[in-house]
Amino acid sequence: MWCKGPRRIYQPTVKHSAKVHIWATFSLFGTFPLCIFSQNLDSHFFVEILKWHLLENANVFHGTEWFLIQDNDLKHTSRRCKTWIAENMPNNQLDWPSQSPDMNPIENLFSWMKYKLNRDRPKTIKDLKARLGGI
Questions:
Q1: What DSSP letter does each residue of 72-135 carry, written as one string?
Q2: Where would you tag: which of 13, 53, 56, 104 has the fewest CB atoms within 10 A of its CB?
Q3: What pLDDT is recorded for position 9?
Q4: What is the set of domains in the chain, with CATH numbers?
């Protein structure tokens, strides 16, 4: 930027932008309610999501006839997560190849969600969460 004289011009910047994370799941019969959160996802919190969002919804919609498919993210493959899955849903996990985005169906859902959000971009985090809940 150029200016005349000894004036200083400051460009405002955002040091730490607000963030929203989602955990999503779906089945042949549709999507389950989104889990929307802002804290960082670690293996402890991921196990809580599995307890309160996955098991609750999957068992209501499908009884015991369902399978969990997830990528090989470190949170998914942590000892804590593997132990919890083995104890709480031993027959519901499918092995999945690592590094295979072409075989990861959730990426199609995320792409569709991004398309819907980009049509009318939310201005605030509150608006974003409301829009996510309505998709």
A1: --HHHHSHHHHHHHHHH-TTSB----SS-GGG-THHHHHHHHHHHHHHS--SSHHHHHHHHHH-
A2: 13
A3: 73
A4: 35-126 (3.30.420.10)
